Amino acid sequence: MADDKDVLRDVWFGRIPACFTLSPEETTEREAEPYYLLLPRVSYLTLVTDKVKKHFLRVMKAEDSTEMWFEYEGTPLKWHYPIGVLFDLHASNTALPWNVTVHFKNFPEHDLLHCTSNSVIEAHFMSCIKEADALKHKGQVINDMQKKDHKQLWMGLQNDKFDQFWAMNRKLMEYPTDEGGFRYIPFRMYQTMGERPFIQKLFRPVSPEGHTLTLGDLLKELFPAAICAEEHSCDLVATLPRPGTGSQTAGRNSDQAQRVEYGASIGKVTTTDMNSLLTIV
């Protein structure tokens, strides 16, 4: 995968046009105009919305301008989910631009984590990388990197620098064929319905009999009742880029997520009994 540079570049530069509007509940000194922004799918909302915050703070009273948070149609948006995952989970069937509501008060403590600075996002990002590498390489690759290499990964994401990021991420995506490949495939199945926000379990890339396993095999293991036989009606949709959203959802694999989210593949599975988003490294 690390050699598919054109695909990786297309995934990286995928964008979602968004319109940010201030919540009517906020107290302002004058009318707040909406703010339009192209959001990178592989980044985080709180990492790329400084301009949004500055725009709305111009009309806010100082005493009311506390921590900024976002919601879409009544659902608070989790900043620690990549933007592409948030959009695909909550708004992939809506017209563009994506209409996001901005809040500065009444922070939903039970729904969102606080994000007071970019260092919080960085800590989350690096935790995801380490988790993924532990699954793929027993943590050997990330542990062999120097602190400056870790910083380069983060700065590449923060500054939207593809080459800077992938110069380091390439090492984390190396597939050790002499060792039988990755130990496990890091993935998460995000859900909009269900008791848990996502499903995550150990999944090897090769069966005990030596057969290479596919995305279909993973889905059958996760949802054996939902992934039906060929003779039955079953809707399995690999989410394709919508006009204006850039080219992602056939992908996401950063080794940020290698917990799953960015340059590899994203699929959307829709059946009568589930509505989930799968992200795989």
UniProtKB/TrEMBL annotation:
Keyword vocabulary terms for this entry: Autophagy, Isopeptide bond, Membrane, Ubl conjugation
GO BP terms, alphabetized: autophagy of mitochondrion; cellular response to nitrogen starvation; piecemeal microautophagy of the nucleus; vacuole organization
Autophagy protein ATG5 alpha-helical bundle region domain residues: 120-174
Pfam families: ATG5_HBR (PF20637), ATG5_UblA (PF20638), ATG5_UblB (PF04106)
Membrane topology according to the record: Peripheral membrane protein
Subcellular location(s) of the protein: Preautophagosomal structure membrane
Cellular component terms per the entry's GO annotation: Atg12-Atg5-Atg16 complex; autophagosome; mitochondria-associated endoplasmic reticulum membrane contact site; phagophore; phagophore assembly site membrane
The Autophagy protein ATG5 UblB domain, residue ranges: 184-228
Molecular function (Gene Ontology), one example: Atg8-family ligase activity
Top-level taxon of the source organism: Eukaryota
Domain (Autophagy protein ATG5 UblA) ranges: 11-104
Major localization listed first in the record, in broad terms: membrane
Family of the protein in this entry: Belongs to the ATG5 family.
Record text on subunit structure and interactions: Forms a conjugate with ATG12. Part of the minor complex composed of 4 sets of ATG12-ATG5 and ATG16L1 (400 kDa); this complex interacts with ATG3 leading to disruption of ATG7 interaction and promotion of ATG8-like proteins lipidation. Forms an 800-kDa complex composed of ATG12-ATG5 and ATG16L2. The ATG12-ATG5 conjugate interacts with RAB33A; this interaction is bridged by ATG16L1 and promotes ATG12-ATG5-ATG16L1 complex recruitment to phagophores. Interacts with TECPR1; the interaction is direct and does not take place when ATG16L1 is associated with the ATG5-ATG12 conjugate. Conjugated with ATG12.
Function according to Swiss-Prot or TrEMBL: Involved in autophagic vesicle formation. May play an important role in the apoptotic process, possibly within the modified cytoskeleton. Its expression is a relatively late event in the apoptotic process, occurring downstream of caspase activity. Plays a crucial role in IFN-gamma-induced autophagic cell death by interacting with FADD.
PANTHER family from the UniProt entry: AUTOPHAGY PROTEIN 5
Record's protein name: Autophagy protein 5
Originating organism: Cyprinus carpio carpio
